């Protein structure tokens, strides 16, 4: 009797050794232990198609994200949080990396022999700006800074120190410039403005909280002193350990140092000019009204 029990136990253990381990992947319910739910027609019998009884869920009228069913929203309940203070008025600068810029230069989407500005970047068809969403231009990021090899003249709205160093190391020039909302709207869709016969407006100066950035030579601001910018170019080269190319001796010096006036929106077009697309001509008024 004991021998048969031992043999049975050995056979059972041998069988267990040959079976796979119990996992979630090989678990199955017992036969006939699960029944498919059936929708009945009586009271509480499932005649609502799983959407509940009344309310927005049954009507597929879902609440917007952040709605708290009539309560004050979180960001209004705690207005003293510093993060939320003036959040709807902050200027936004969508990013463009140096790697993306190098790819566009290599694929001829951007002509490296011409100055690059906001209009050039939008005309590639790869980037969009929405002034109504407080987007005031592009910021150039340092992703791909070690692979950037082009000598360009570029104007963006914001750039870090490492980005400035990557461009100036190759003999290029970078400027940061501000555009007001009206100027941005004309830059984004100049054809629409020209068809209406609107004269090119003057670009407004930066607001008070942005004056310091765009007058700073370390930021290569378009309102900074050119002599101070030359000094900071040398300081940055010493900091990052590269030899600063002498752009004064460069045969492309005129192209590399091309800059817009502080009131100018387009290269080669002055404020007050009217572009007639129908007649294919430029109307240049003698006296353009002053800012008042």
UniProtKB/TrEMBL annotation:
GO terms for cellular component: mitochondrial large ribosomal subunit. Residues 18-59 are annotated as: Disordered. Residues 95-174 form the Large ribosomal subunit protein uL15/eL18 domain. InterPro entries: Ribosomal_uL15/eL18, Ribosomal_uL15/eL18_sf, Ribosomal_uL15_bac-type. One of its GO terms (molecular function) is structural constituent of ribosome. Transmembrane segments: none annotated. GO terms for biological process: translation. It holds the Pfam family Ribosomal_L27A. Keywords: Ribonucleoprotein, Ribosomal protein. Belongs to the universal ribosomal protein uL15 family. PANTHER family: 50S RIBOSOMAL PROTEIN L15, LARGE RIBOSOMAL SUBUNIT PROTEIN UL15M. This is Large ribosomal subunit protein uL15m. It comes from Glossina pallidipes. The lineage of its organism: Eukaryota, Metazoa, Ecdysozoa, Arthropoda, Hexapoda.
